[in-house]
Amino acid sequence: MALNISSLERSNLAESVSDLLRESIVNGQITPGTHLIEAEIAKQLNVSRGPLREAFRILEKEGLLDNRPGRGSYVSQPSERYIKEAYSLRSVLEIEAFRLAINKRTEEDLGRLENTLEEMFNAAKSGDERDVLRLDIAFHRMIWGIADHRLIQASLEAIITRLKMYIAVQTKIYDDLLKGIADHRIILDALRSRNEERGIEALKQHLQLAIEMVLKYFVHSDGDEPKLTG
């Protein structure tokens, strides 16, 4: 586990360390179930145990770390129930955001979404999983922004922060990353033509495929990856 410490701020070490670890977790660089060993991370980041432990506490409150008495801190392992509930809630909110966005979208909005989709296509062609993840989330966020419903947007942001580590897994297990972009094309075309039914159906299929892949990965993965217990 290699962490990029080039941007680590020294003024507030606990927050800087928690930011760095959070990014590494949600981007899939540190996978669920990983044991975070204090001594190793403190040495790698060149920080003392105090700020590191405070950073761990911050991430525990956010639900990203589990503290196991006598064993240490581990990246939270997803339960099947949590993943299903999170994705079902995301689906409900995204569908409502799409409904709102249909009547509010402008040609400029469509152009920005088109550009993002093109970038995603190029990233997939080059096999850049991390960039595909970044652009995938950016595409959805643009639609939330077009919907202009603050509570929906805030709720989706909270959900996506917790789901990012699982979405990162999702990009790694597409047999062909380009296949993962097909639903985004349908969603954008439906938004352009204001075809609510087609767009909602594409969103449902997209998120259903996502949850199936994530659950399959965690159930059947080997090595240090977490196994779901239900």
Summarize the structure.
This protein is mostly helical and 230 residues long. The chain is built from nine helices and three strands.
What does this structure look like?
It is a single chain. The radius of gyration is 19 Å and the shape is elongated. The chain has two domains: 63 residues, Arc Repressor Mutant, subunit A, CATH 1.10.10.10; 141 residues, Four Helix Bundle (Hemerythrin (Met), subunit A), CATH 1.20.120.530. The chain has 230 residues and is mainly alpha-helical. The C terminus is likely disordered. Strands 1-3-2 form a three-stranded antiparallel beta sheet. The protein is 69% helix and 4% strand.
